[in-house]
Amino acid sequence: MLVAKLAGYDEPLQLVDHPVPDPGPGEVRVRVEACGVCGSDLFLQHGGFVGAPLPIVPGHEAAGDVDAVGPEGTGFAVGDQVAIYYIDAPPDSRYALAGHLNIGPGVRRMGVDVDGAFAEYVVRPAHTLIKPSAPVDPVVLAVLTDAVSTPYHALVRIAQLRAGESLLVLGIGGIGSNAVQLGRHLGAKVIAVGRSPKKLELARRLGADVVLSDGPQVAAQIRAETDGVGPDVVLQCGASAHLDELAIEVAGFLGRVVLVATTTESFSARASTFVWKELTVRGSRGFLPEDITDVIELYLAGAITTEHLTTTRRPLVEANEALADLASGRVLRTVLEPATKGH
Ligand SMILES: [Zn+2]
């Protein structure tokens, strides 16, 4: 089978042939119909995940059909549609036991720690697979598992955003754009900050009440839109230290700042800013299987759209072009279609 493999940091992916893997006990082989190309694939490519083993097949935002099941019962049948939850947590981890499958020692991330879905087939533990309650276009199902589930986790589980609150979204990319539409759905006043007019227009279309271009006046403009005090929740979805600092600077009293984007840059802040406003600053790492289940239901109910994420599709052989498009900001997402023949 064809895979796109990262053999060295800052290098292009190599398109190579791998043997089709066989599922062991408790495992399922998934024919990968769709896999999104995400900012964290670029982060991986450029060495951001310290300690990630190389070579590695990236790809963590995937959906497909069950192609084979392992020798013991898995609860899945050949042909079942599945979304892949990319993390396999050690079952005895105290974090996993408390429901935090996304963190703790020993979590194995598909596409970071073990080979991922930039491949025609991937073998996964059956307990990491999710059957949608109704059929979903696989390209849509793939982006629901990360681009939408990540901001959902950040807004619902970490920030606990409530209707009537103000939400500032910094960075209108694959994550931020969905934070905007989810914030709107949850009943918040949504202020979106981005750089390109095209992305601000998208934020407007997805339900932002206010869109602001990032610049020297932006902090004052954000305060003006929030009764002079700053937003209740800030979701920092842009990978830059400047935006980390802006998030903390403009958050309102009792504000919850949630850092979602990752950058290798450091930021600085004064303790007094946290003290004066009793700020909470938290990171939000990925998402949980129940976040995927929830956003699938939101999609099936017509509450959210994925059109802005699924218009650019490429065959797996164009994985490098997809990464280049993402790095340049030309697209929010490209969805690779590894199992689609005839490209
Ligand atoms: Zn991702």
Helix content: 25-40%
Mind summarizing the main beta sheet? 7 strands, mixed
- Using only CA atoms, what is the Rg? 20 Å
| Unreliable segments of 5+ consecutive residues | none
* Assembly state: single chain
**Helix/strand/pairing class, anyone?**
alpha/beta
Number of helices: 11
Estimate the global geometry from the Cα principal axes. globular
Portion of residues in beta strands equals 15-25%
Description of the structure:
This protein is 29% helix and 22% strand. It has 343 residues and is α/β, with parallel strands linked by helices. α5 links the parallel β11 and β12 (210-213). The longest helix has 21 residues, at 138-158. It starts with a strand and ends in a 7-residue tail after the last strand. Bound molecules: zinc ion. Zinc ion is lined by residues 38, 40, 60-61, 146.
Notable traits:
alpha/beta; binds zinc ion; globular; seven-stranded mixed beta sheet; six-stranded parallel beta sheet
Please provide a brief summary of the model:
29% of the residues lie in helices and 22% in strands.
